[in-house]
């Protein structure tokens, strides 16, 4: 109720328990069930990307605060890991309902801090909610294995037991979904969780902590610290943290994977992407073009599964003018405005980077079909907006192709055959997602079998798997063994304990010690 009141009333956000009062409200830490004001002197200003007004200041937590957060998680683990699985399941049911009840409020805060449209922000929360819903079936997911009678009077069985304190480090682009890939799965398996949300939009995580508390999760089962590199190093090095889940850029992901692994931790690291859509001439044209626009420009291209490169095979290239027409119709506006199709980029720096990459494409010989760099949004002139941009005749050697752009930019390439298109994609370093648009089953089947990418869509532009499966990006887009959520998520957050037991009534023949290896 408090959340609803605070968010419903414009300007009253400072009344939220995780914002302290002051001219610019500060975001609090969440330690052992309390929203705590940081004692740091080092703060990060968080701007609304549509206006560039400062809306909160995010602390870089002090060393003592981070230590207190880990100690709290470690202490909570002692009792939490011994709660019954049915208790954990019931708490997940409650949490699931609370997220549903507060979905619009969380989405509104995401739009304010991150910039995406309200409808898209609701999708962000929904996709995370589905992970919680899957966690509710933990009574099946955490089952071990058994084999009775492996020797006389002897059985072997396994348990999947929790690891301890597990940390999560999240990116700015899905402020609800990605933390929800992490802490609910960790908790439901019996771990405790330390989250360091993106310093650029931690509000959704903090709001969810209100709901964690309301659901009745014991204090310390989830703690939240804020910060940037120092907080990340702290997590990588702390001996009481057993596992790290990371989602974000390549640079940070590789670094965290190496530093965490070197310290003996389990690490799963989801990183950047360059996702290609292949458009066959036999595809349903209307559907393919609409899906390219939605997946290329939605969320202003700030999705790791955005389709950022379109490969037109054969005659499909003649559809380009119609693609441009559709992209021009998309409405660039503040995410909170009705009818907005894409909102601003996260920061002025991100906008500059995207514009520079567009220019590099032009300088290297790509053809500009649609230029969104000079878009002006009335009423939001200071926002970080870039409109849909389409570059044609892009070559693999170009900088704009080699780097992840993470903006509303669709690169277009041509191929004479499906084999040629597959080769281009397999030569790219990333393996997060790809899609083919075709009406031919044999073509689709060939694509599925030859493509070296972890998540494949057939007439589905953003093939993010539902949580009964796992998020299986591959090659340059992932480091680690077990992926996020689904069965692999449960594996990541548990270790196997294998028990070999013998129960035998008094045996008169068992009179002598045997020293040979038992078989
Ligand atoms: P980012 O790497 O800048 O930040 C992610 C987290 O890492 C943040 O919490 C940040 O504080 C920390 N961090 C940033 N730089 C660091 C450094 N040098 N050393 C240590 N820690 C650092 O990522 P972002 O800009 O917030 O997110 C966008 C990126 O995330 C894109 O590359 C996108 O493709 C990727 N992403 C990948 C997936 C996926 O599942 N593969 C999903 C979403 C986003």
From TrEMBL:
Its EC number is 1.2.1.27. One of its GO terms (molecular function) is methylmalonate-semialdehyde dehydrogenase (acylating, NAD) activity. It catalyses: 2-methyl-3-oxopropanoate + NAD(+) + CoA + H2O = propanoyl-CoA + hydrogencarbonate + NADH + H(+); 3-oxopropanoate + NAD(+) + CoA + H2O = hydrogencarbonate + acetyl-CoA + NADH + H(+). InterPro entries: Ald_DH/histidinol_DH (IPR016161), Ald_DH_C (IPR016163), Ald_DH_CS_CYS (IPR016160), Ald_DH_N (IPR016162), Aldehyde_DH_dom (IPR015590), MeMal-semiAld_DH (IPR010061). It comes from the Eukaryota. CDD domains: ALDH_F6_MMSDH. GO terms for biological process: L-valine catabolic process; thymine catabolic process. Keywords: NAD, Oxidoreductase. It holds the Pfam family Aldedh. The keyword Oxidoreductase applies. GO terms for cellular component: mitochondrion. Residues 35-499 form the Aldehyde dehydrogenase domain. NCBIfam families: MMSDH. Belongs to the aldehyde dehydrogenase family. PANTHER family: MALONATE-SEMIALDEHYDE DEHYDROGENASE (PTHR43866), METHYLMALONATE-SEMIALDEHYDE DEHYDROGENASE [ACYLATING], MITOCHONDRIAL (PTHR43866:SF3). This is methylmalonate-semialdehyde dehydrogenase (CoA acylating). It comes from Lingula anatina (Brachiopod). The gene is LOC106157712.
